[in-house]
Amino acid sequence: MKTLSLACTVALLTALTAGCDASLSSDADSAIAPAAAAGAGGPTASGSGHLTINNEYRTFSFHAREAANGTVSGSFNLQARQTGNHLKGNVTCVTVLPNNRAIMAGFITEADESTFRVGGNFAFMVEDNGSGNGAPPDQLTLVNQFSIQPGFPTDQSLVDFLCASNGSAILPLRPIEGGNITVRS
Questions:
Q1: Fewer Cβ close by (within 10 Å): the C or N end of the chain?
Q2: Minimal CA–CA distance to 155: which of 124, 114, 120, 123?
Q3: Which residue has the higher pLDDT, 77 or 118?
Q4: For residue range 86-124, what is the model confidence (pLDDT) as tens digits?
Q5: How many other C-beta atoms can be found within 10 angstroms of the C-beta atom of residue 168?
Q6: Are 12 and 78 in contact (CB under 8 A)?
Q7: What CA–CA distances, in Å, run from 16 to 6, 39, 40?
Q8: DSSP 3-state helix, strand, coil percentages of the chain (rounded to 5)?
Q9: Which residues pair with 56 in a beta bridge?
Q10: Biggest distance spanned by C-alpha atoms of the chain
Q11: pTM of the entire predicted model
């Protein structure tokens, strides 16, 4: 995992030109890590960072935690810095996969980009590749919105299905240019 020493943490990418409000800070990461280390609850995933897609600088931040009673809480924020587009959502499921990967899914709560619908389902996947100078960069996918297609359910059933998948329906992973992603089972 690469780390940034910037005060403002940065961007989960979107399928088009949407982005994130990097209002989640490393406080979100530090709030999740102690619970995971203490064995309280289930899987956690958190991170923040930045990358460039189609010559556009994007920042992201996210966190997701499964409590001991099985409920999941979390959120994500994306921002495409050149356009100012924002995308935000509540994470309602998180699944840890082999190879330090996690799938998160939930519902979009704010969208400046017309491609994404508020209330629609989303999913994305991340990969934690360790830390230190020799570690490869952490990775994440673009945010996928599935319920914009006619006939797709818009309730928790699709979100749960996406979290139970192996990630095959989710776009390919992309290396982040700076930041840190942490996945714990």
A1: C
A2: 120
A3: 77
A4: 899 999 999 999 999 999 999 999 998 767 888 888 899
A5: 5
A6: yes
A7: 26, 38, 37
A8: 10, 40, 45
A9: 53
A10: 47
A11: 0.74
